[in-house]
Amino acid sequence: MADAEQEAARARNEALRLQVDSLLETFEQQRRELAEVQRQLAETTAEAWSSDGLVRVVANVAGVVLEVHLIPEAFKRSTPDKLGKSMAEAAQAAARQAAELSQRAFAPIQDVAGDVPDLSDIVPGAPSLKDLMSTLLPDPAAPGADERPEPPAFDDEDEDDYYRNRGYLQGDNR
User: Fold this and answer.
1) Which residue of 5, 26, 75, 138 has the fewest C-beta atoms within 10 A of its own C-beta?
2) How confident is the model at residue 23 (pLDDT cuts 50, 70, 90)?
3) HSE-up of residue 170 (Cα within 13 Å, Cβ side)
């Protein structure tokens, strides 16, 4: 009977070893794929225009603005306040598009990870692949985005004088 128990224990050990080997193989495959996706994403940008067509923003996959382009007539067709809102709108659209690109790039790796038990489920203390994946996807929403500082006080007459007298060219930053 001891031989039967030992044989059963060996069979369980062998099954567990095969399962762990399979998980390690999957982990290595995901690690290679992840490195390739990260390399591709480092070179990826998203571009968006404001709804008024005055501002174009380019952002990286983390939603960080890399470039802001204004059409030449932007200052003639808009006010500083409206232009600022157009910039924010285009930046947010570019960040959303960048987040979508990231999600699509990581989707195949996440699909593979969803089909197998997590490494930490089988080997106590091992890193969780699912937790690792969730930390790699950037969050385009900046913390504290709702907290806006109070803008400097300008009345319309002061603002007109600022532009009329070309204060912006003389370094009058108010």
Assistant:
1) 5
2) confident
3) 9
